[in-house]
Amino acid sequence: MSNSALSVISSDPPEKWQEILADLITDPKELTEILQLNSNRGSDSLLAQAGLDRFSLKVPRPFARRMQRGNWDDPLLRQVWPSQLEDEVDLSLSEDPLQESSFNQAQGLLQKYRGRVLLTAAPHCAVNCRYCFRRHFDYAANTPGKQQWQETLGQIGRDSSISEVILSGGDPLAAGDNYLKWLLTQIDTLRQITTIRIHTRLPVVIPQRITSSLCQTLASLNSKLVIVIHCNHGQEIDSSVQLAMQKLRATGATLMNQSVLLKGINNDAAILVSLSHKLFDMNVMPYYLHLPDRVAGTGHFLVDEQEGLDLITEIRALLPGYLVPRLVREDPGSDSKTRLG
């Protein structure tokens, strides 16, 4: 590793990520006061009741600082605001639309596709995105201790067909540095594992999470490292996120982004084109643009397949091919994600 890469990795932000994570905005009233939102706006300001009971409000303060004051239509606010629309009953939506419970082979272990497995490395996130496809997931039954992890990793090690381990959650980077170092080192010692992939939103919502200790662990891995961040809108990217991406890039990781296509937030060609450019400026490749999963409580975010196809056609005419994300849908039981268009 070069001296310049080491110098990037070794610098830590002044704010401690653990303190930020312990001081999330969890009261809708506080969020409206911080953002100077008029409670007389009407239906937009009304809160979900059942939705909040099942899935609490969680917003990191660094993420809230990127929201526009006084704007109920702010694209970052709309991703986290528990709207009353969540309480509307739609029988076409499901608590487990991807049927993940049927792929939950052991505590913390899911295998949907051949050759790779997913570990729920942490049972919580730093932000509760209201469109989350795991908002109803049974994390209580999928939070192994070290002994259970060792049994699960032993099971993976005995299956020579598995070459990639994916850390998801929750958000794996919501776990502490020491725990992640232990888990990643254990995975890295499995002989047939060639790739470790981490799916995370932390570098976007709390970029201070990318500490020198974490980066040193990531840089020490023998397996190829892929980090897939989750960013839906260019407004989510500021200088602190750019620095976090620089640090992750210096570990030797391949950086990619996946977005969810969300009604009223990013279902617009200009917004998606701008996002691809901003990602590429940080050496992050656009990867997937997901149609929203049909999760109970998220119907107001849904974008249909035809609109998605029309958007991809439009942005394909505006971007070089390598900056056009793959439009996909996840169908339970399929061998892979379903690529559209």
Short précis:
The protein is α/β, with parallel strands linked by helices and about 350 residues long.
The CATH homologous superfamily name of the largest domain equals Aldolase class I
* Relative helix content: 25-40%
Shape estimate: globular
User: How does CATH name the architecture of the largest domain?
Assistant: Alpha-Beta Barrel
CATH level 1 name of the largest domain: Alpha Beta
What is the CATH third-level topology name of the largest domain?
TIM Barrel
Q: Quote the beta fraction.
A: 5-15%
Run of helices and strands: HHHHHHEEEHEHEHHEHEHEHEE
Q: Find the count of extended strands (DSSP E, 2+ residues).
A: 10
Strand order in space, largest sheet: 1-2-3-4-5-6-7-8-9-10
Regions with pLDDT < 50 over 5+ consecutive residues? none
What is the number of helical segments per DSSP (H or I, 4+ residues)?
13
Measured on Cα atoms, how large is the radius of gyration? Answer: 20 Å
